[in-house]
Protein backbone atom coordinates (compact mmCIF):
# COMPACT_ATOMS: atom_id res chain seq x y z
CA UNK A 1 0.00 0.00 0.00
CA UNK A 2 2.99 2.23 -0.01
CA UNK A 3 2.34 4.04 -3.23
CA UNK A 4 -0.73 4.18 -5.34
CA UNK A 5 0.45 4.02 -8.91
CA UNK A 6 0.23 0.27 -9.17
CA UNK A 7 -2.85 -0.03 -7.05
CA UNK A 8 -5.08 1.70 -9.52
CA UNK A 9 -4.01 -0.73 -12.15
CA UNK A 10 -4.57 -3.60 -9.82
CA UNK A 11 -8.06 -2.43 -8.92
CA UNK A 12 -9.08 -2.89 -12.50
CA UNK A 13 -7.98 -6.51 -12.62
CA UNK A 14 -10.91 -8.87 -12.61
CA UNK A 15 -11.01 -11.42 -9.85
CA UNK A 16 -11.02 -15.05 -10.83
CA UNK A 17 -12.40 -17.66 -8.54
CA UNK A 18 -10.41 -20.81 -7.95
CA UNK A 19 -11.85 -22.89 -5.19
CA UNK A 20 -8.81 -24.98 -4.49
CA UNK A 21 -8.36 -25.78 -0.84
CA UNK A 22 -4.74 -25.53 0.17
CA UNK A 23 -3.17 -27.53 2.96
CA UNK A 24 -3.45 -26.19 6.47
CA UNK A 25 -1.06 -23.43 7.43
CA UNK A 26 2.45 -24.13 8.58
CA UNK A 27 2.85 -26.16 11.73
CA UNK A 28 3.47 -24.27 14.92
CA UNK A 29 6.98 -25.67 15.09
CA UNK A 30 7.78 -23.76 11.92
CA UNK A 31 6.58 -20.38 13.12
CA UNK A 32 9.22 -17.69 13.36
CA UNK A 33 6.76 -15.11 14.69
CA UNK A 34 3.43 -15.25 16.48
CA UNK A 35 1.29 -12.86 18.44
CA UNK A 36 -2.16 -13.81 19.73
CA UNK A 37 -2.58 -10.38 21.32
CA UNK A 38 -3.47 -11.75 24.70
CA UNK A 39 -3.25 -9.15 27.45
CA UNK A 40 -5.30 -6.77 29.49
CA UNK A 41 -7.60 -4.25 27.89
CA UNK A 42 -5.77 -1.06 27.02
CA UNK A 43 -2.31 -2.61 26.89
CA UNK A 44 -0.08 -1.66 23.99
CA UNK A 45 1.11 -4.25 21.47
CA UNK A 46 4.14 -6.04 22.91
CA UNK A 47 7.26 -3.94 22.35
CA UNK A 48 9.27 -7.15 22.02
CA UNK A 49 7.29 -8.05 18.91
CA UNK A 50 6.12 -4.76 17.40
CA UNK A 51 7.45 -1.28 16.73
CA UNK A 52 4.85 1.47 16.61
CA UNK A 53 5.73 3.76 13.73
CA UNK A 54 4.95 7.43 14.29
CA UNK A 55 4.96 10.53 12.12
CA UNK A 56 2.73 12.42 9.75
CA UNK A 57 4.27 12.61 6.30
CA UNK A 58 3.17 9.39 4.64
CA UNK A 59 2.40 8.66 1.04
CA UNK A 60 4.20 9.14 -2.24
CA UNK A 61 3.74 12.00 -4.67
CA UNK A 62 1.84 15.07 -3.40
CA UNK A 63 -1.47 13.93 -4.84
CA UNK A 64 -1.17 10.69 -2.88
CA UNK A 65 -0.48 12.25 0.51
CA UNK A 66 -2.14 10.54 3.40
CA UNK A 67 -3.95 12.55 6.03
CA UNK A 68 -3.12 10.83 9.30
CA UNK A 69 -0.49 11.15 11.96
CA UNK A 70 0.50 7.86 13.50
CA UNK A 71 0.69 7.86 17.28
CA UNK A 72 2.06 5.44 19.84
CA UNK A 73 1.50 5.04 23.55
CA UNK A 74 -1.84 3.27 23.23
CA UNK A 75 -3.71 6.20 21.72
CA UNK A 76 -4.63 4.46 18.47
CA UNK A 77 -3.36 0.89 18.96
CA UNK A 78 -4.17 -1.22 21.98
CA UNK A 79 -5.36 -4.62 23.08
CA UNK A 80 -9.06 -5.07 23.77
CA UNK A 81 -8.64 -7.60 26.58
CA UNK A 82 -10.36 -10.28 24.49
CA UNK A 83 -7.26 -11.41 22.64
CA UNK A 84 -7.25 -8.81 19.89
CA UNK A 85 -5.21 -5.82 18.79
CA UNK A 86 -7.43 -2.91 17.75
CA UNK A 87 -6.05 -0.13 15.54
CA UNK A 88 -8.37 2.86 15.30
CA UNK A 89 -8.20 5.76 12.85
CA UNK A 90 -10.05 8.79 14.19
CA UNK A 91 -11.19 12.18 13.00
CA UNK A 92 -9.08 14.02 15.53
CA UNK A 93 -6.78 16.92 14.78
CA UNK A 94 -3.20 17.04 15.95
CA UNK A 95 -0.48 19.59 15.29
CA UNK A 96 3.09 18.47 14.69
CA UNK A 97 5.88 20.89 13.80
CA UNK A 98 3.37 23.63 13.19
CA UNK A 99 1.28 21.64 10.72
CA UNK A 100 -2.22 20.51 11.68
CA UNK A 101 -3.40 17.10 10.56
CA UNK A 102 -7.02 16.05 10.75
CA UNK A 103 -6.70 12.39 11.70
CA UNK A 104 -4.79 10.13 14.06
CA UNK A 105 -4.13 6.43 13.60
CA UNK A 106 -1.53 3.73 14.23
CA UNK A 107 0.84 1.56 12.24
CA UNK A 108 2.80 -1.30 13.77
CA UNK A 109 5.56 -3.33 12.17
CA UNK A 110 7.00 -6.61 13.35
CA UNK A 111 10.48 -6.57 14.85
CA UNK A 112 11.02 -10.02 13.39
CA UNK A 113 12.21 -10.08 9.80
CA UNK A 114 10.86 -12.98 7.82
CA UNK A 115 13.70 -14.48 5.86
CA UNK A 116 14.08 -15.30 2.23
CA UNK A 117 10.63 -16.59 1.58
CA UNK A 118 8.05 -17.78 4.06
CA UNK A 119 4.46 -17.13 4.91
CA UNK A 120 2.24 -14.82 6.90
CA UNK A 121 -1.24 -15.48 8.21
CA UNK A 122 -3.43 -12.87 9.92
CA UNK A 123 -6.97 -13.25 11.24
CA UNK A 124 -8.73 -9.93 11.23
CA UNK A 125 -11.89 -7.95 10.71
CA UNK A 126 -12.67 -4.30 10.16
CA UNK A 127 -15.44 -1.98 11.13
CA UNK A 128 -17.88 -0.93 8.46
CA UNK A 129 -16.67 0.96 5.45
CA UNK A 130 -16.00 4.65 5.83
CA UNK A 131 -14.76 6.90 3.03
CA UNK A 132 -11.10 7.70 3.57
CA UNK A 133 -10.14 4.71 5.71
CA UNK A 134 -7.41 2.47 4.31
CA UNK A 135 -6.88 -0.56 6.57
CA UNK A 136 -4.11 -2.89 5.48
CA UNK A 137 -2.31 -6.11 6.39
CA UNK A 138 0.94 -6.40 4.44
CA UNK A 139 4.61 -7.25 4.26
CA UNK A 140 7.38 -4.91 3.18
CA UNK A 141 10.73 -6.25 1.96
CA UNK A 142 13.90 -4.67 3.29
CA UNK A 143 15.55 -2.33 2.60
CA UNK A 144 12.24 -0.61 2.03
CA UNK A 145 13.79 2.61 0.71
CA UNK A 146 14.47 0.68 -2.50
CA UNK A 147 10.72 -0.01 -2.91
CA UNK A 148 9.47 -1.93 -4.77
CA UNK A 149 12.70 -3.78 -5.54
CA UNK A 150 12.53 -5.97 -2.40
CA UNK A 151 8.83 -6.54 -2.69
CA UNK A 152 5.59 -5.77 -0.97
CA UNK A 153 2.76 -8.22 -0.42
CA UNK A 154 -0.67 -6.96 0.60
CA UNK A 155 -2.55 -9.82 2.24
CA UNK A 156 -5.50 -7.44 2.38
CA UNK A 157 -6.04 -3.76 1.88
CA UNK A 158 -9.24 -1.84 1.43
CA UNK A 159 -10.06 1.65 0.39
CA UNK A 160 -9.65 2.26 -3.31
CA UNK A 161 -12.31 3.94 -5.35
CA UNK A 162 -14.62 4.69 -2.47
CA UNK A 163 -15.93 1.18 -2.15
CA UNK A 164 -15.82 -1.61 0.39
CA UNK A 165 -13.94 -4.14 -1.69
CA UNK A 166 -10.81 -5.49 -0.03
CA UNK A 167 -8.04 -6.58 -2.35
CA UNK A 168 -4.75 -8.46 -2.38
CA UNK A 169 -1.73 -7.04 -4.21
CA UNK A 170 1.84 -7.86 -5.10
CA UNK A 171 4.45 -5.18 -5.75
CA UNK A 172 7.87 -5.80 -7.22
CA UNK A 173 9.95 -4.00 -9.81
CA UNK A 174 8.16 -6.01 -12.49
CA UNK A 175 4.72 -6.88 -11.10
CA UNK A 176 2.00 -4.69 -9.61
CA UNK A 177 -0.87 -7.12 -9.94
CA UNK A 178 -3.78 -7.60 -7.59
CA UNK A 179 -7.53 -7.96 -7.40
CA UNK A 180 -10.55 -8.12 -5.20
CA UNK A 181 -11.16 -11.40 -3.40
CA UNK A 182 -13.21 -13.69 -5.63
CA UNK A 183 -16.88 -13.78 -4.95
CA UNK A 184 -16.66 -10.83 -2.61
CA UNK A 185 -16.26 -11.03 1.13
CA UNK A 186 -17.65 -9.10 4.06
CA UNK A 187 -14.51 -7.69 5.69
CA UNK A 188 -16.44 -6.70 8.81
CA UNK A 189 -16.53 -10.44 9.54
CA UNK A 190 -13.52 -12.48 10.63
CA UNK A 191 -11.33 -13.74 7.83
CA UNK A 192 -7.91 -15.37 7.67
CA UNK A 193 -5.68 -13.61 5.16
CA UNK A 194 -2.56 -15.47 4.05
CA UNK A 195 0.34 -15.17 1.68
CA UNK A 196 3.21 -17.61 1.15
CA UNK A 197 6.15 -16.69 -1.00
CA UNK A 198 9.58 -17.55 -2.36
CA UNK A 199 12.28 -15.14 -3.50
CA UNK A 200 14.91 -15.05 -6.20
CA UNK A 201 14.54 -15.12 -9.99
CA UNK A 202 11.72 -17.70 -9.86
CA UNK A 203 9.99 -16.28 -6.82
CA UNK A 204 6.22 -16.53 -6.50
CA UNK A 205 3.58 -15.36 -4.04
CA UNK A 206 0.45 -17.40 -3.30
CA UNK A 207 -2.54 -15.66 -1.74
CA UNK A 208 -5.29 -17.38 0.20
CA UNK A 209 -8.30 -16.39 2.22
CA UNK A 210 -9.86 -18.63 4.85
CA UNK A 211 -7.65 -21.47 3.65
CA UNK A 212 -8.77 -21.22 0.04
CA UNK A 213 -6.12 -20.49 -2.59
CA UNK A 214 -7.03 -17.54 -4.78
CA UNK A 215 -3.98 -16.47 -6.80
CA UNK A 216 -0.32 -17.10 -7.54
CA UNK A 217 1.81 -14.28 -8.88
CA UNK A 218 5.44 -13.81 -9.93
CA UNK A 219 7.38 -12.30 -7.03
CA UNK A 220 10.83 -11.67 -8.44
CA UNK A 221 12.88 -10.01 -5.71
CA UNK A 222 16.49 -10.50 -4.59
CA UNK A 223 16.96 -13.86 -2.86
CA UNK A 224 17.82 -12.01 0.35
CA UNK A 225 14.70 -9.89 0.86
CA UNK A 226 13.80 -10.02 4.56
CA UNK A 227 10.31 -8.65 5.19
CA UNK A 228 8.38 -7.03 8.01
CA UNK A 229 4.70 -7.55 8.78
CA UNK A 230 2.80 -4.26 8.92
CA UNK A 231 -0.69 -3.61 10.31
CA UNK A 232 -2.18 -0.16 9.92
CA UNK A 233 -5.11 2.05 9.02
CA UNK A 234 -4.15 5.00 6.84
CA UNK A 235 -6.49 7.87 6.04
CA UNK A 236 -6.70 9.52 2.65
CA UNK A 237 -4.29 8.65 -0.14
CA UNK A 238 -5.63 5.83 -2.26
CA UNK A 239 -8.72 5.64 -0.08
CA UNK A 240 -9.91 9.06 -1.22
CA UNK A 241 -8.98 8.81 -4.90
CA UNK A 242 -11.75 9.49 -7.34
CA UNK A 243 -11.56 9.59 -11.10
CA UNK A 244 -11.62 13.07 -12.61
CA UNK A 245 -13.72 13.99 -15.63
CA UNK A 246 -10.53 13.90 -17.71
CA UNK A 247 -9.94 10.28 -16.72
CA UNK A 248 -7.02 10.90 -14.36
CA UNK A 249 -7.15 9.76 -10.74
CA UNK A 250 -6.01 12.97 -9.06
CA UNK A 251 -9.45 14.06 -7.87
CA UNK A 252 -10.03 13.57 -4.16
CA UNK A 253 -12.99 13.43 -1.84
CA UNK A 254 -12.95 14.21 1.86
CA UNK A 255 -13.02 11.32 4.32
CA UNK A 256 -16.21 10.81 6.31
CA UNK A 257 -16.62 13.68 8.72
CA UNK A 258 -16.89 11.39 11.74
CA UNK A 259 -14.38 8.79 10.58
CA UNK A 260 -13.72 6.21 13.26
CA UNK A 261 -12.43 3.11 11.52
CA UNK A 262 -10.93 0.01 13.08
CA UNK A 263 -8.74 -2.92 12.11
CA UNK A 264 -9.07 -5.67 14.71
CA UNK A 265 -6.50 -8.47 14.63
CA UNK A 266 -6.93 -11.77 16.47
CA UNK A 267 -3.46 -13.06 15.60
CA UNK A 268 -0.53 -12.56 13.26
CA UNK A 269 1.96 -15.31 12.61
CA UNK A 270 4.77 -16.07 10.20
CA UNK A 271 6.87 -19.01 9.16
CA1 LIG B 1 -6.03 -13.55 19.67
TrEMBL record:
Keywords: Signal. It comes from the Bacteria. CDD domains: GH16_laminarinase_like. InterPro entries: Beta-glucanase-like (IPR000757), ConA-like_dom_sf (IPR013320), Glycosyl_Hydrlase_16 (IPR050546). Belongs to the glycosyl hydrolase 16 family. SUPFAM superfamilies: Concanavalin A-like lectins/glucanases. This is Beta-glucanase (GH16 family). GO terms for molecular function: hydrolase activity, hydrolyzing O-glycosyl compounds. Residues 15-271 form the GH16 domain. GO terms for biological process: carbohydrate metabolic process. Residues 1-26 form the signal peptide. It holds the Pfam family Glyco_hydro_16. PANTHER family: GLYCOSIDE HYDROLASE FAMILY 16 PROTEIN, GLYCOSYL HYDROLASE-RELATED. It comes from Phytomonospora endophytica.
Amino acid sequence: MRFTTFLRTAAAVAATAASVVVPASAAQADWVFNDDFTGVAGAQPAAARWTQQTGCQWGGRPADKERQCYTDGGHNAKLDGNGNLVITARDESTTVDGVTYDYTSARVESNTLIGSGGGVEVRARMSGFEVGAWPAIWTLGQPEDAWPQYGELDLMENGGGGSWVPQWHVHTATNGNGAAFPGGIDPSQWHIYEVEWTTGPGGTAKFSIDGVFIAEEPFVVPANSPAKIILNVAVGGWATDRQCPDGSWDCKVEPDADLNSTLTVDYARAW
